Amino acid sequence: MGQASGTISIHRLGRGRWLLDEKSHRPDGIWAVLTDRGTATTRMGSSVKVMEEHRMLILDNSGSLTVTVPDASRTIAVLLPGESGDLPLPTSPSGGLVISVRRGSTSGILAHILRGLAEDDHGGFNEHGRRVCDQLTAIVRMACAEETATGRSDVHALFTASTEAIENRLWDEDLDAEALATRLNVSTRTLHRAFRAQGATVSLWIRERRLDRCRQDLQDPNFHHLPVGTIAAQWGLKDAAHFSRLFKARFGEPPRKFRAAAPQPVDDFEHQIEAGGRIFA
After folding, report:
1. Inter-residue contact 30 to 96 (CB < 8 Å)
2. CATH 2.60.120.10 correct for 7-150
3. Are the beta carbons of 96 and 48 closer than 8 angstroms?
4. Contact at 8 Å (CB) between 90 and 9?
5. Among 19, 56, 152, 253, which has the highest number of CB atoms less than 10 A from its own CB?
6. Angle, to 10 degrees, between the axis of helix 177-184 and the axis of helix 202-219?
């Protein structure tokens, strides 16, 4: 990250719509916007972020920043010196990175520093030592890297928990993204993001796993006495005609034809002897 110029711009924002336009006299810089209490909405260019309490937005100073703060909320916006080129920010213009402020994390330390700056300052531009500015921008870089790594880990953990929950409720015909998100206590948006990270979708994953289980049961001689429709219904696919179409599209032949080609059950003693079956007294 480039050396800091030593100038920090601090804004304490209460209720209202605030336009922070510093691009004209600050060609570079890194914004750190903290929702210290309540919520806030930020806009830079075409990018809009709705931020919950104790979230921090890190983005470059590439344009005018608008911050809308509702009643009983407080937001701190600090423009730090430095260049954003080596920060792990989204590639889309002005996308920014939203960080969850957590105790014991770098983001928690950064939030504490921003609160201190806001309390000790009366707003506006202030000159700070270059070493202090360099340390602040280094902390921002560490917080971004930590959030990116944590985010990847959290997404993978959610995907794993989701697939386990799906396996346990494949029989439930009402199982869908909304029901799964409720069960896991996450938003449907977060759930869909976890599956997109794996190149999958919730609905497709559920459908494919149901078809896989039906295929296993249709091959199993122990379930040969069960009608095809019953097997499908046991795995949440109660529309027999729809199941047949899905099965053929997935495995290349209708379920009844697939079952006919599977090993047949051995029903009696003579067949077991002819087949070389092992008989235990």
Report:
1. no
2. yes
3. no
4. no
5. 56
6. 100
Q: How confident is the model at residue 12, as a pLDDT?
A: 93
Q: 190: which residues sit within 8 A by CB, 6+ positions away?
A: 158, 181
Residue type, 136: L
Q: How many CA atoms lie within 13 A of 87 on its CB side?
A: 30
For the chain, what are the domain ranges? 7-150, 155-202, 206-260
Q: Which of 4, 21, 123 is nearest to 67 (CA)?
A: 21
pLDDT digits (tens, 9 = 90+) for 45-73: 878 888 888 889 998 888 889 999 999 99
**Strand, helix or coil for residue 149:** helix
Q: What are the beta bridge partners of residue 67?
A: 18, 42
Q: What is the mean pLDDT of residues 143-161?
A: 77
Q: How far apart are CA 3 and CA 81, in angstroms?
A: 8
- Measured distance CA(152)–CA(159) in Å, rounded: 11
Interior CA angle at 66 toward 82 and 39, to 5°?
A: 100
The residue length of the chain stands at 281
Q: Which of 209, 231, 229, 208 is nearest to 219 (CA)?
A: 231
- Taking Cα atoms as reference points, which of 112, 143, 106 lies closest to residue 30? 143
Q: Where are the alpha helices (DSSP H) in 43-120?
A: 106-120
Q: Does position 92 have pLDDT exceeding 60, yes or no? A: no
H-run or E-run covering 17: strand 16-20
Residue 279 pLDDT level (bands cut at 50, 70, 90):
very low
Residue 86 has pLDDT above 80, yes or no: no
Q: What is the pLDDT of residues 225-261, one digit of tens each?
A: 999 999 999 999 999 999 999 999 999 999 999 999 8
How far is 210 from 9, CA to CA, in rounded Å? 56
Q: Which residues pair with 75 in a beta bridge?
A: 13, 35
